[in-house]
Amino acid sequence: MSKIYNWAVLGCGRIANKFINDLKLLPNAKPYAAASRDLNRAKEFANELGFEKAYGSYIEMVQDPNVDVVYIATPHSHHFEHTMLCLKHKKAVLCEKAFAMNQHEVVQMIQCAKDNNTFLMEAFWTMFQPSFQKALEIVNSGELGKLKMVRSDFAFNADFDVNKRLYNVKLGGGSLLDIGIYPVFAALSSLGVPDLIKSSADFSPTGSEESIQMIFKYKGGEMASLSSSFAVHSPVQTEFCCENGYVILHPRWFTPTDLTVWKNGEEQQLIPNETKEGAGYQYEAKHVMECLDADLIESPKMTWKMSEDLIKTLDRVRIDAGIFFPDHDKELFF
To answer: What's the rounded Cα separation, in Å, for the pair 97 and 79?
Structure first.
């Protein structure tokens, strides 16, 4: 029998609500503590989702000896600060993507996990979706020939609002770190780190990047065409294009979804979504507890190297496109 793990949530927003609802599908996971800077908000969240405790400060939560693992769901501008707080109190951490604002912060987070012998993983839930794993399995098998091109997008029309996190530079606003990170992840997971990056961005009145187009090129001739935007709607799908066919991850491809395999110009197979319950967050939570059962401090699936490669690539995109976060990027740009 696996240990029953007491989960805490740091940041009581929409994404945390979805995560906890999926966490309840796992018999060895217990929603234990909700923490917010607003005690009333923490109590409301805790009551709604069945937590045992509510804390009005993050330091109180990490000082609770019964907390086993913390899910960090604050804006990515605060991921570094909150991850370091938890790790220094030897609390296992599952931190939402983007892991941090830049490579400089991610490197420190990983070193802190090593120094404190404490588990740390980026909450890139797509890595654990059965449909995404199946697509990679087909591509990597070689049955469609060599992978030559990846096309991936994620866009929706978010009404411009200066008060929204999406447009707030101080909170890491912009489509790239919020949703563009998914297409970048699709390229890295299948083609690896690109040799050349070309990117072009359009900016909102607040100075946040609203839309971005990215081209990745590789020494072997492979390419990736990636985009994200808060200004338009897009198919929100990913295509892995090989020499003798291609795999399509259907719309909302980053969640549990259907996929279609085409071979030699003819439709080969529709593989339906196998997820019967939940939104898909349960897979990463289950993996975290499996790692903790095995006394691991690093996931063998969503490795620290993968997170480093991802943030380094995002930094390269931002440098090329001129996307700058003044409160975080001095080491990156100067």
So the answer is: 9
Query: Would you place residue 159 in the very low, low, confident or very high pLDDT band (cuts 50, 70, 90)?
Result: confident
CB atoms within 10 A of CB 252: 13
The closest of 12, 14, 85 to 51, measured between CA atoms, is 12
> Sorting pLDDT into bands at 50, 70 and 90, what band is 187?
very high
Q: How far apart, in Å, are the Cα atoms of 262 and each of 139, 245, 266, 268?
A: 11, 5, 6, 5
- Report the interhelical angle of 282-293 vs 14-23 (nearest 10°): 60
Give me the phi and psi of 230, to 5 degrees please: -100, 5
Helix (H, G, I), strand (E, B) or coil at 117: coil
| CA–CA distance, 111 with 196 (Å, rounded to integer) | 28
Q: What is the largest CA-CA distance in the chain?
A: 59
Mean pLDDT calculated for residue range 186-198 = 98
Cβ(309)–Cβ(52) below 8 Å = no
Beta 147-155 vs 53-55: how paired, if at all? unpaired
CA 105 to chain CA mean position, Å? 16
How remote is the C-alpha of 55 from its chain's centroid?
A: 26
Q: Which helix (H) or strand (E) holds 149?
A: strand 147-155
Backbone dihedral angles phi then psi of residue 25, each to the nearest 5 degrees: -75, -10
pLDDT per residue as tens digits for the range 52-62: 999 999 999 99
pLDDT in tens, 86-131: 999 999 999 999 999 999 999 999 999 999 999 999 999 999 999 9
The full DSSP string for 245-262 is EEEEEPSSTTSS--EEEE
d(CA 328, CA 81): 12
- The first and second tokens of residue 300, run together, are 């063998």
241-255 per-position pLDDT tens digit: 999 999 999 999 999
Query: What does each C-alpha distance from 139 to 151, 184, 244 come to in angstroms?
Result: 14, 17, 11
Q: Which three-class secondary structure state does DSSP give residue 310?
A: helix
